[in-house]
Specification:
By secondary structure, the protein is mainly α. The chain contains three helices and no strands. The chain has one domain.
């Protein structure tokens, strides 16, 4: 696992993505970029939860309809 993480870090450094990310946080959009990064994480969690809830509701309605027949 550690080898995979190290390889990923090397890959990120080789592509220069880390440098781009670091330079972006200094620019005007730094607050916006860092804000959206954390917001995106919460958005994904909320979206996942909603997806599961909606799936359960649809499944329950579907099973109840089948029993009603």
């Amino acid at each position: 696992m550690e080898r995979i993480i190290k390889r990923h870090d090397d890959f990120v450094e080789n592509r220069g993505l880390r440098r781009i990310i670091e330079s972006n946080t200094i620019t005007k959009g730094s607050l916006w970029l860092t804000g959206t990064a954390s917001q995106l994480k919460w958005l994904m969690i909320v979206a996942g939860a909603l997806y599961i809830v909606l799936g359960l509701v649809i499944w329950i309605i579907h099973t109840l309809r089948k029993k009603g027949r």
